[in-house]
Specification:
17% strand; alpha/beta; seven-stranded mixed sheet; 13 helices; globular; 2 domains; single chain; 333 residues; Rossmann fold
């Protein structure tokens, strides 16, 4: 899966253990699914999973890792991969925007990304197969990028992996059905119920759309107007989540929690977030008794490197290298 700040990779075992400890749980709803890593693990654990995220790249990841059935889509994808891999490079939007005007990918790989993405669009594939093909391309591009893991900036010198050849691989599909949606979080929990609902919202000013705007463009394939050194999509300025606002996050979280339709509610949140541990307890306790598990983990790699200005000079050090992830469990009354 792609490199992703907040992917919950280190939390997945604890989440699976929590859910397995609950009685008579068959359905699981991940409302802010991101990479779909959590939903994928729950599907592998035998649950019927529904995933949701309002960003297009995240919805495609969920279509691949939660909704796609390996038995149905594995064979046609195996046939499609060699066709895509053999395409000759052809420079287009990705090359011009993210390789020449910026340095997210080496131009040789940028031209291959352009050619493959254009071909996927031209094939007019069934939606499920298209999602798997897009994820294969996204992950291949991620393996040869030149960033620290977020797309707010790129490295001053090419990362060694940026010189590797782009290689498409089969995503790790799972057998069985699932669902993927692209709704606003409040609308999603008002529309769908599950035995367990899981909330992992954005928790501070860092927007996932801004951090992963290249993937949004790769999926939408809309050649947007780009701005700034990182060549972000122009709509990064307008598509704002209340969960990225210190002023709005408390009300947004309270509205979603109150609307959840589930017997059990799981919430993960960082100690770096705009909502404190005690404030989150107060919000969640409206729905029932709350238990809290605390899990310490390393901060993302960019924090270890330090703080740099636009000229690439180190201008500061981060205050801490460890975070605490709070995992709240609520028995909804």
């Amino acid at each position: 899966m792609i490199k992703y700040l907040g992917s919950k990779r280190v939390l997945v075992p604890a989440l699976v253990e929590q859910v397995r400890s609950l009685p008579d749980v068959r359905t699981f709803f991940d409302v802010f699914s991101g990479t779909a890593r959590v939903g994928h693990a729950m599907k592998e654990a035998g649950l019927r999973v529904r995933a949701n995220d309002h960003n297009a790249y995240a919805q495609v990841l969920a279509q691949c890792y939660v909704a796609a059935d390996r038995d149905e889509l594995g064979p046609p994808m195996e046939r499609l991969l060699p066709e895509l891999q053999a395409l000759p490079p052809r420079a287009g939007y990705i090359t011009h925007t993210f390789c020449e005007q910026a340095r997210f990918f080496h131009p040789n790989n940028g031209a291959r990304i352009d050619a493959i993405r254009d071909h996927i669009e031209a094939l007019d594939l069934p939606p499920a197969l298209r999602a798997v093909a897009l994820v294969s391309l996204m992950e291949a591009a991620d393996r040869v990028d030149s960033t620290t893991g977020v797309q707010m900036a790129y490295l001053k010198q090419w990362a060694p992996r940026a010189h590797n050849d782009l290689e498409l691989r089969m995503p790790r599909l799972l057998p069985g059905p699932g669902d993927a949606h692209g709704l606003d979080a409040l609308e999603a929990v008002q529309r769908y119920e599950a035995d367990v609902v899981y909330l992992d919202p954005p928790y501070n000013q860092h927007s996932y759309l801004g951090n992963y705007h290249v993937w949004e463009t790769l999926v939408r394939w809309d050649a947007p107007v780009a701005y700034g050194v990182a060549k972000k999509r122009l709509d990064c300025k307008t598509r704002r989540s209340p969960f990225n606002s210190k002023r709005k996050i408390h009300e947004a979280m309270q509205q979603v929690v109150r609307a959840v339709q589930a017997r059990w509610l799981l919430v993960s949140f960082s100690n770096e977030g705009y909502i404190s541990r005690d404030e989150m307890l107060a919000i969640l306790s409206e729905r029932g008794p709350v238990e809290v598990q605390e899990i310490a983990h390393d901060r993302y790699v960019g924090a270890k490197i330090g703080i740099y200005n636009l000229e690439g000079r180190k201008v500061g050090r981060v205050g801490h290298l460890k975070n605490v992830e709070y995992l709240f469990r609520v028995r909804c009354g």
